Amino acid sequence: MAATKHAQNIKQDSREYLLTALLQLLETKNLNDISVSQVVKRAGVSRMAFYRNFDTLDDLLISYFEPVIQARFEEVKNKISEADKLNKIGEFFTDYSDILKLSEKRGFEYIIKKIFDDNMIDFYRTVSLPDQLTEVERRYWTKFMSAGVYAIWYEWLVDGQKETLEKVHILIGGFQNSTMQFLMNK
Asked: For residue 45, which of 68, 15, 24, 66 has the smallest C-alpha distance?
């Protein structure tokens, strides 16, 4: 049992070293210009340690962002009042503004967007939508809102956060309500 716990600790340490090394390399290089060899060399671990944990560098980044984003959404779904849900999700963009800006600059923003989108779609499944919507309307509305919400917050972030987060949330709420109203009145 002790050897197993020790092996698990080594594996976790390797994962952390690999992530730290990749994030350090991303400070000066685009994701597409970084190789697994560069990451393992910087991390001080073997290629085997990398491939025991991940298939690609994308997988390494996913292992970092997925739990962070999922935790934020779980908190929003289960612990936050309806009035504060949008604010709490929006805080993700301010809390992680540096890495989000880096993701755009270094070519890995698509990873964050995909994880965010998956969680936003799951979030919208928990929201009560009018019964008269068809399954197709629900699916497309949810996808549309997820992509739009992400795009608005991300634009706000990279544009220098000129508007207040409250103003951005009012805009998102307006889009959400008007698109739903359209579906209800079609």
From this structure: 15
Structural domain total, the chain:
2
| CATH number (domain holding residue 38) | 1.10.10.60
Q: Are 103 and 112 in contact (CB under 8 A)?
A: yes
Pick the closest to residue 176 from 135, 136, 147, 134 (CA basis): 147
pTM confidence score? 0.83
> Cα–Cα distance between 168 and 148 in angstroms, integer?
12
- Write down the H helix ranges in the chain: 2-26, 36-43, 47-53, 57-79, 85-95, 97-106, 109-125, 135-158, 165-184
pLDDT in tens, 112-156: 999 999 998 888 887 778 888 999 999 999 999 999 999 998 898
